[in-house]
């Protein structure tokens, strides 16, 4: 229910929700919206990959 409220209020923005859990990294997370951060799985470990900067956004 919290995540639903966050995504409804974020409109065109970005959001990240992280919480402690019993896994190798000790946490889990979920993202919303278009941003440079993309969650990926590497051998069962959740990491964040940064996508290249879009040159159109910096003009």
From TrEMBL:
InterPro entries: CRISPR-assoc_prot_Cas2_sub
Pfam families reported in the protein's UniProt record: Cas_Cas2CT1978 (PF09707)
Name of the protein this chain belongs to: CRISPR-associated protein Cas2
Gene3D superfamilies on file: 3.30.70.240
Organism of this sequence: Alteromonas mediterranea (strain DSM 17117 / CIP 110805 / LMG 28347 / Deep ecotype)
Domain of life (superkingdom): Bacteria
């Amino acid at each position: 229910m919290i995540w639903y409220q966050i995504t409804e209020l974020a409109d065109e923005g970005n959001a990240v929700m992280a919480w402690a859990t019993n896994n190798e990294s000790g946490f889990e997370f979920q993202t919303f919206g278009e941003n440079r951060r993309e969650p990926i799985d590497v051998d069962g470990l959740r990491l964040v990959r940064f996508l290249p900067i879009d040159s159109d956004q910096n003009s």
